[in-house]
Predict the structure.
Amino acid sequence: MYSTKKNVLLTAAALKAYNIRHVVLSPGARNAPLVHTLAIDPFFCAHSVVDERSAAYFALGLIQKLRQPVAICCTSGTALLNYGPAIAEAFYQELPLLVLSADRSPAWIGQMDGQTLPQVNLFASITHKSVHLPEVHVPEDEWFCRRLLHEALLALAHNGPVHVNIPLSEPLFNFSAPALPPFAPMEYVHTQSHALPGIGAQWLQYEKRMVVVGQLPQNHTLAPLLHAAGQSSVLLGEHLANLPGTALGSFDQLLASTPKNDLPGLAPELLVTCGGHIVSKHLKQFLRTHPPKAHWHISPSGAVIDLFQALTRVVQVPLHTFWQELTSQLPAQSALPPFMQHWHNQAKSLCTAPAQCTGQNSKTWGEKDAVGAMLAQLPQGSALHLANSSSVRQAQCFALPPGVEVLCNRGTSGIEGAISTAIGYASVHEGLTFLLIGDLSFLYDINALALCTPPANLRILLMNNGCGGIFYALPGLEKSSMLDPYIAAQHTRQGKPWAMAAGCTYMHAQCAETLAAQLPEFTSAHNAPMLLEVLVPHSKPSPA
């Protein structure tokens, strides 16, 4: 029987999955759940060494002979400090030493409780990876714990020490768990060459294949390769993926409108992801609820990104290398497979053409209509910068004219810096640079118009509904009496004074007709920066 501590069970299961057999154990109360679980399982070859200084060097000797990772395990407090010299030696000898340290609950660090000190990242400068496992209480804790263990044990491939810190709260000594949980190792693929042997055959093992492309800069050599992969898979990409005419861009609306019972039929068996951030919350929820059998993430940096909680393989190669090698191994596709046909049939009825500003009913006209009208008139070769929150979500509802590059600060998805980024881009871009921005994001970065001279090719479409409208779409927040004045920050400010002070040509619109009259000049070449402010009534947005 094993310890009932779930992070201990997962740690032991992970060591078995990654074939780490030798463990050097030092005695202690806080690490007793770990020691008991590792020592009682016949898979492990357990060595008992009382002094942690000797235990760690003993492990180095095992590694030098066996040429494989070895784990050491100690209790909390100064016991971990005694590993220091051997960890430093392992770092400079490039030996795969796995440090497992028991720890107290974070609540008791610095409270004069016994055997406590700050153990998290204690050896950060001389380890390849340092993780702090959660105590497992809810399913998300377990997923997080598993992901951190994958990250740590994959890092041992870099030949150097790795530290896993394991907090354990009392009671400690319940040894009634009958078995370790299942734990499959994550595959790590890395090659310096252009060869990924067998990748095409592995791709074809799955009938239902999906490729999801996150944020990418415009790349005219990568896009055709992704298009080729899309001949035998469902290829999904938002505007930020910069794959016009290649990817299925209406998937967020498709998922939102599909009955819950029909969603499993849209789920892939193989998911391949690349690029940066995904905006769509519907896609994230869909793939987490209906996980694929296999998920490959193409990660040029080697980072373990498990956005959909189903990651099985990390492929550390350049994106161009992966897609070129894969597509070269795939046979010609004569007809759409049923899975792809199902997706495309579902999407046809939802595909939104570029919007036209034709004088919609003023009673129903709103910010989404204004956004669509402006996007429809973007000239070819222009760049579209999207501020975060409503702007990036509303733009996704419309198809874009060809040749428009889309950019957005989605690394952290903050509202700050959108004007500054667009000005910086426009200063070195030959074509027109458009910025779609909401009023709060505009006010947040208003100093940019004073501190950075707006270039003549900059066009700012300011959607001003007098508040942070996205907050009205968050379920439950409507119950707060502070929503209007403080959370959504309702206001009556307009952009004209700042635009004029910055030397921008200022225009404004309050209805479909006045916007239609302004857009031709706004979207054409001009010798001065422009700000077109659309004053729209607040409407509840649909979060993506």
Confidence is low (pLDDT under 50) at residues 351-360. Residues 188-348 form a domain with the Rossmann fold fold (CATH 3.40.50.1220). The CA atoms of residues 271 and 295 lie 5 Å apart. The first helix runs from residue 6 to 17.
